[in-house]
User: Fold this.
Amino acid sequence: MSKLLTKSEWSALFPKLKYVLSDCDGVLWNGDRAIEGAREFLGTLRQNGKRVCFVTNNSTKSREQILSKCLKLKFEAELSDVYGTAYATAAYLKMLGVGSVYLIGSPAIYHEITSLGIKCTGLGPDELDGNWNSWLNVKLEEGIQAVVAGFDEHFSLQKVCRAASYLLNPDCHFIVTNRDQSLPSERKDLVLPGTGCIISCLETAAGRPPIVVGKPYPTMIELLKKQFPDLDPENTLFIGDRLNTDIELGRRQGFKTLLVETGVHNREDIDPLKAPTYYLPSLNDICGFIG
Amino acid sequence: MSKLLTKSEWSALFPKLKYVLSDCDGVLWNGDRAIEGAREFLGTLRQNGKRVCFVTNNSTKSREQILSKCLKLKFEAELSDVYGTAYATAAYLKMLGVGSVYLIGSPAIYHEITSLGIKCTGLGPDELDGNWNSWLNVKLEEGIQAVVAGFDEHFSLQKVCRAASYLLNPDCHFIVTNRDQSLPSERKDLVLPGTGCIISCLETAAGRPPIVVGKPYPTMIELLKKQFPDLDPENTLFIGDRLNTDIELGRRQGFKTLLVETGVHNREDIDPLKAPTYYLPSLNDICGFIG
Assistant:
């Protein structure tokens, strides 16, 4: 069962920690506002020799862009602390030896993929128009070895047509950044569809499931472990605001997990079978413990 | 188990029949060619006082458009004999008392919905551009009572954003024409995404399942029963070429079912647990029995 993180719990946990992996949106900031106390909390961790990493499912920002957001909001950070799904997907493609990709995604992921020397088509609005009879004349590229999908403002059925056609080849990899159903929105009357919606659509067309790079799947942790081989359940805390991605990833890895209630989920949403180790209204509360 | 429909089987079945419900594509015609014998068969049924209805999943044609195809191919038909998912969806909305709809769909379904006096927005490309920050300013209509989805060439995440936002209201109905994963394509290297892809995407964004009007779901039969209250398993035959839509619908309703092998499936595709009552190479074979 989950418990409220108290000062004494925190005092017992703190000395054991070497790594603190934190989600960004809803934990450290909301939109362009840093969440109160988050900066001080991470600062204290660093001063005490803990390694802080930023682990986000956001596929619309490159590693550099996430770093620059950290710095703009005055979170101390270096490039090697930042793990986003755009970067992680590119690194994963490189590991697989993929040379040519059809992408449904953002300029950021295009940048990360091409930066590693991988050929990439599909960025921006599809050239086919809205008359589906014209789709029958679509020209497919030769030699596509992977279909990659992340968040794409220009998502369309024309793109689905191309992606699913490439995926008819059983050797073509199907790799996606994440399955988050929605993007965070300050308007409570609005659902901003997330990458997960794109993936469901593609999966139905292709008739096969993708490999998911983002939380709660283990690919980003596998990449982190390449950088930090001693990252393990005993010395790692995962902090997040989403039970089904952040907390679920931490739980599957055996890490200690902390749900903060400044983003999507709160303690009432907890499924006892998939509960975080701790919950807390906000990172600001820990600042009081450390003080 | 399924059996071949013989002359003696047919002679025993024929007097009991009052209603014959038939799929169109692959049963009565293929593309723009009528299937041999189909016209004569339906003509004989009518001469003997049987009621013939056309029941199709195609959501991109209005009732009038399907009727006009029947007449063009010289099938005797009246508007009230025709059940397509565009019309059936509109009729279902009317039955529910819905007055205002947000539509992801074709001009045909827009026509059917507005013809019944129901207000409908959403036809054609969304007015929001590809910059998702602008979606945050989307103006939602007041009083939308149902989100309706069918095949839409202009499908986009902007549309998903609107649809899922309306569906935040638990009283807003979520109604879709069908879940066919792909459209028929003569190019074997191409997957043409069908309405089912759109529905998977919407379902993920909305976090709830839709009501499906098309075969094999019962909504079209429920509408038929309003017009023909004595339609029942004892007096009804369903004819189709697809096991997972036509035959499955007939089977679930307890109707007698006949698979004809002039379209998608044939006798080798039959799952013994979901078998049609009869199979036959073509409707032309029955003409010989009646003659």
